[in-house]
Each structure stands twice: as structure tokens, then as C-alpha cells.
Design a protein that fits this description.
alpha/beta, Rossmann fold, about 50% helix, DNA_Rep/Repair_Clamp_Loader, P-loop_NTPase, DNA polymerase III subunit delta
Amino acid sequence: MVSKNVITILENSIKNNKLSHCYLLKAPSGLNIDDSILYMINKLCNSQLQSLDLETMLPNVQIFEDNGTENNLKKDKIVAGFEESSLSSFVEGQKKITVFKNVENASKAALNSLLKIIEEPSDNVVFILTTNNITKVLETIKSRSITININAPSNEELAEELKGENLKEEAIWFYSHIFADLTQVKKYTNNESFKLIKDLLEAIEKSIKNPHYLYIFLSRFTKKDSKDTFVFLAMALRFVFSWVWTADAFCRKNYAKLLVKLKNIKFDLFNCFIVIDDFLKIQNTNANFFLQAEKMLIKLVESYA
């Protein structure tokens, strides 16, 4: 879904002939903003691309990102990319679009190279930067950019979208609070996913008496082929632990007994929440997933002590 803020700001920039050379798209962690990036590229290039697939990308568009397998947010990659673009032939008057996804993950050397390029931009170059952590973006980059806030849909808005996905009401309630948007729901869930939620709730209840029960349950999903399942369960677990700070009426009636037990336990649920939240925040970085997952599980058990 294209952000309304992106549409409004870009259209006004074009209409008033005040197009910026650098836009910084600020979005919450986990929110997929490819549709907004694609909209900007199509609008600026008068094109009709259907995706950000590099194989079908326009020759005047470069995309730099750390996709987990290849990080081209490094100085040598950036410099080589700009040298290549300067030697390429473009349609006269066509904008050169350079996209940097999750710019906060770039190396310091890469950021300094990027800053130099942004400070002395060519008239026909537009930069589109994205970030899930605005506090880690250099102030000098922020000051030279127009920041566009892209907000996740509300729980109610996402729930409405999920009604068209042939899901039960209980699953819709859970997913609309766990996930940032519909793209994330489709990435992490399948027909068996809500059964895993049920199994997780059972593990949480049993772990109140034996904290190792939750560890054993979650550790089954720390293998390479079940990474997304583990992340999905971590998001669900964080949501369940957050119930203790909500009004009793927030939870569905069938979770009332578990909610009472959670509110009466003596171990540090707040620390459990923070441990899971810290783990989820590094999922778009180069951190070793398996080491971080094990570290999270150990800290959870320690919080139960």
C-alpha cells in the first residue's frame, strides 16, 4: 500500500516545481514500504514498473540494500555504482534515481561517501533513502533530506484488510496486533500458523510452573529452515506478554484465564518483553540469527528466575 504522505508530498513537490534531491522515508520496523518506493520511481520516471525486481528495473535506477546475503551498502559498492551510472547512457531529461534501503545499516565509510554525493548533487539525480531507525541516521544526511513519515496501518485498518484473507476472527484479532501490515502477515503465516499460536499459548501457561518448557518449545524453531517461524512466534510472544499492561477487557474472553495467571506471576515480564523486542529489532541487520535467538531464549529463562 502506497503511503498517503508519500503521494501528497511528492505530488506537491512536482506540482510546485520544488522537487528535492533527497527524500528520507521513515517507517517503523517490519513495515514493507516497497510500494511507496515503487510509486516514487514510477512518478519521477513516468514509468509503469510493477515491482522493484532488479532484472526489470530501469537503467537509470540504482537500488542499494543489505538483503542479508549481499550487503551493497558499502563504500566500494556505492562508489562503483555511481561510476557505472555516470558512464551509462540515459534518456535526455530523465531523472537518475538512487535508492538506499535501510541507510542506517550502511558502514561509516559508505555514509561519508553518500554524504559527499548528496552535498553536491547533479540536477537530474534524486535520492530515496529509507530507514527503520531514524536515530541512527547521520544528522548531516537528515538535514539535507525531506523526511516523509510512513505510518503502519492501525490495528483496526489491518483487521479490515485481513477479513478478505479467509481467516477466522480469532486469527484476525491476533495478527492485526502482531504484524505491521498485510505484507508481513503473508510473509510469516500460512494455514498452520494459528495452530502454532495455540501451541505457544499452551507453552506459556506451562512455563509459569516450569520456565524451561517455553525454552524447549521455542528452541525447536531455531533451525535454518524455520527462521521465519521463530520470528513469528517471537512477535506473538511479545504481544502476549504485553497483555499484562492492558485493561482486562482488551483480551478476548477465551484468554481471560491466561491473562489472570500472567498478571499474578512474580517473574519479570517487562524484562521478557524487552528481551524479545531487542531480538526483533536486529532482524534487518547482519547479526547472526541463530546466536541471537539462543541468546534471547537464555535471557527469557533468566527473567523467569
